[in-house]
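Checked the freezer inventory, then went back to the computational side. Two predictions to log before the end of the day. The first one is the construct we discussed on Monday; recording sequence and tokens without edits.
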Amino acid sequence: MIRWRVRWYWYALALGLPLAVHGGTDVPSLTFTSLTTFLAVFAVRLVNPADGPLGEHPGWNGVALPGMQASHSPLVATTVLALLVAGWHLPTFFLEEGGLRPSVLVAGFVTTMAVTYWYAWLFNHTGGSILLVVAAHSVERSIQYELGWLIMGVWLAVAVGLVVFDRKAWRGPAPAGTTMPPTLPPKVAAPTTSASLSPEQRPVVQ
């Protein structure tokens, strides 16, 4: 949560990519009318535990992903995580603009899966920084956008691009700091022998 010592360009990417995706595909729906308003919304989302970014990523990326990456490749672990995250958000898609609309249900499910790959990739490349993932999600949440085929296509292209062009990182072992340490079995007490007992504890032979 406080791993902030990463190179500056990771901050630029974490903040800039969501702005580029949503700002470039749905400009009329931006929630802010000024930079000050946007920064205020972003700051609140960054620290609000009841909101999506801070409420979700300590669990998804801080526990679930490192746990799975301890025994699976980042690609396999992220694919499982993406299905879990998208399934978790599925009920909210029924609340978006009238329920059973394929452009909302399908696009919402696929977009959520695609964004999960982006967050996992960012998490792994920053040595396990939840802070950067929360910041990236907070930027995205600070922009009001309508779920649809266009936004789905762009995020899907981002996810596919990350997997294709950085496939070595996805298929190899997860970087240090992004996996849970293996759980050690409990120590079994050594059998007690008479030699390990004090003279007062040794049995009296009659």
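The second is the one RB wanted added to the comparison set:
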Amino acid sequence: MTNPSIREIALAEPGSGPYGITAGPDGALWLTLAGTGGVARVGPDGEVRTYLADPAESRPLIITAGPDGALWYTRSGDDRLGRITVDGQNSSVALPPGTAPCGLAVGPDDALWYAGMGDDTVGRVTVDGAVTTFPLPAAKGFPSMLAAGPDGALWLTLNQANAIARVAVDGQVTLHALPTEAAGPVGITLGGDGALWFVEIAAGQLGRITPDGRIDEFPLPDRAARPHAIVADPAGGCWFTEWAANRIGHIDKAGRITGHDLPTPSSEPHGLTVTPDGTVWIALETGAVAHLTP
């Protein structure tokens, strides 16, 4: 891979805290604003629009395109899923008190699935707002992120239980303990090789788990980088954020790991997404979006 170019686009509100990011069905990038509440839209031309109808304390985290053509996002501060249409119409779905939802993904059943980091649950929300919750067999496990697997199930990181959970759509859970103690798994994604790839923020490693539960780990060159989020790329590798190192990392399908420094020091990279043209967009919690072109 040649050295990529990286540019940054500032968002309008100081302290907005961009956190999660996804590509929308309208060709724009949509971000959660953990600092102010609400979401932002970055158009293909770089125009930034913000939608701040949610309470400031709602602390939105992860956002994804839903099966209904809208954007859905977790509101960890007030126990809700937010929903916004591409023309800016807001609504929300109430979750059980104490849920503190974090990760969010569309399941194989075309429902929204979330990780309840506050109450050790995983939940299912239909597009018309029906909520079902399933308990996880790990007390204070801090369910963090989840992704749809190739096997018709959801795969979930348990940050404090040091495990990856497989959750069938009927709520049956299988736990897979990680080989490294206190590894702290967070982000997870379905890779192009049919396995789930995840990051271990406390151990400074990447992990790979196959649908049958086999786990491999890949130490990063900088074990103190604190990897946070991960997303698959079209070439069979994965991009990931290195929060403490102010860097974007990449692992190719041969297992080679490279890193790319962000232009602004201490920009706090969190979520990231790959758009259909193969470029990478990263939410910087200090108030901007980075655009990386390989």
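For RB: The chain has a mean pLDDT of 96. The longest strand covers residues 5-10. Let me know if you want it refolded.
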